[in-house]
Amino acid sequence: MSYNLLRGKRGIIFGALDENSIAWKTALKVREEGGSFTLTNAPIAMRMGKINELAAQCDAQVIPADATVEQELKDLFARSIEILGGKLDFVLHSIGMSPNVRKGKSYGDLNYEWFLKTLDISGVSFHKVLQTAEKTDAMNEWGSIVALSYIAAQRTYPDYSDMAQAKAVLESIARSYGYRFGKTKKVRVNTISQSPTKTTAGTGISGFDAFYDYANMLSPLGNASAEDCANYIVVMFSDLTRMVTMQNLMHDGGFSTTGISEDLIERLAR
Ligand SMILES: NC(=O)c1ccc[n+]([C@@H]2O[C@H](COP(=O)([O-])OP(=O)(O)OC[C@H]3O[C@@H](n4cnc5c(N)ncnc54)[C@H](O)[C@@H]3O)[C@@H](O)[C@H]2O)c1
Hints:
This protein is an alpha/beta fold. The protein contains eleven helices and seven strands. Nicotinamide-adenine-dinucleotide (NAD) binds near residues 96 and 150.
């Protein structure tokens, strides 16, 4: 059912790789709610992923851009405004990658060049997106920019490795840039801290199935799905959340404020 929450709004959606991606589900929801957008991903993901299928479904154009390369971001914003016929109202940063995690390096044996890459791709790229949006005057007043985070920014999950630092950077950038963008342009900036979700990035973390099940058993509502996350992002892009900014918003079925659940006690008592 559509509420037309995003009718007439324009934006950019980063990070749709395949139909499991949170960005993929978000693109479909945003379209359903009347928004128009361009889709973007790193050039290498274009070859591996299925973004063109999604673009056809959403009547959207695809513009490749590596989110760590400022010139590519500049071109992306300029072309998006041209294609969509005006300045932007929303941006989704749905990007994460750690070469250390991908290559199975343990936290006590990190490759520091890769660590910096993790921080750049998964954290600093958010600053680059925000700075490009501001410098190119790409956003309309009361626009909304959202990035996706994970609770490993606050608590330790050993296999999440250097991605934990990247998420801490990401959330901190949302606060610092949210202040700035609020003052200069009345643009709001938030992160959404999402439950474990079965996507390429999610299942790339070793032990993912165990912490997916653990979170599901601990959370009174169970894990939030990618579709649930897409719905929340739509609300954050809509005019119904105009005064929400500089927040890390927990979207986790109650996980972050639950100590223990009957389900887990039962399981551990067995
Ligand atoms: N899946 C989970 O359990 C989970 C939980 C909380 C938060 N998140 C976050 O959600 C976001 C989306 O991840 P997902 O789970 O949908 O997985 P996904 O693998 O579908 O999406 C990650 C995306 O990042 C893109 N990317 C990587 N390097 C890039 C670069 N240099 N430039 C541009 N794009 C680049 C990938 O191509 C991919 O599309 C990530 O920030 C992730 O950390 C995921």
